[in-house]
Design goal:
5-stranded antiparallel β-sheet, 3 domains, 192 residues, SH3 type barrels, OB fold (Dihydrolipoamide Acetyltransferase, E2P), mainly beta
């Protein structure tokens, strides 16, 4: 690291205490190796990815804030912020980005090129709780009035038909019909 041979999200990092978290891209250019940090039952793991996948990351919108110049600041899950200009400065509430949506960001420029609305039929991964690391299609998002949206129950079904439930705060949308990122394959074969 002190020689500048490790990149995080497309930028050289020399501090070995630099924090790396969910969705970050770690690259070793000298070895032509790239990894994405993903959740698993064992905690966060490094998922090998190709060079094309290393050019972007997915970030979840945790909050939105209006700033003085008429822009909207998106507060992302990794602690970073991105300013976006609303299409209608007189009505910034019409901006398409909502909390818990996912944005696809280029690296290292940090420009939004795509976004995924958090909704049923999206492909998602569970980032916390007892089902951490499980991924599949969102089958149902509970519609309960009087309850915080983040606490709504979500049902996710994997490609084997197994269903998992968690709260919306632990769900990270990865794509509409299929994930935009490479995901880990099953590490063990279940025998009957």
């Amino acid at each position: 690291m002190s020689q500048g041979r490790i990149c995080v999200d497309g930028q050289v990092r020399r501090d070995d205490a630099y924090p790396v978290g969910l969705g970050d891209v770690v690259s070793v250019p000298d070895m032509d190796r790239n990894f994405r940090v993903l959740p698993s039952a064992r905690g966060l793991v490094l998922q090998p990815i190709d060079g094309e996948q290393a050019k972007f990351k997915l970030s979840r919108v945790e909050n939105k804030t209006a700033v003085k110049n008429g822009s909207i600041q998106l507060n992302l899950h990794d602690g970073s912020n991105i300013l976006v200009k609303p299409s209608s400065p007189k009505n910034p509430e019409e901006e398409p980005y909502k909390t818990l949506d996912t944005v696809k960001i280029t690296l290292p420029e940090k420009r939004i090129v795509e976004f995924i609305r958090m909704k049923e039929k999206d492909y998602a991964i569970i980032t916390g709780g007892k089902n951490v690391g499980k991924h599949g299609t969102i089958i149902e998002i509970e519609k309960a009035s009087g309850k915080s949206r983040r606490n709504a129950l979500v049902t996710i079904e994997d490609n084997r038909g197994n269903r998992y439930q968690t709260t919306l705060s632990f769900v990270f949308a990865l794509g509409e019909a299929k994930p935009l990122i490479a995901l880990p394959e099953a590490t063990s074969v279940v025998r009957e």
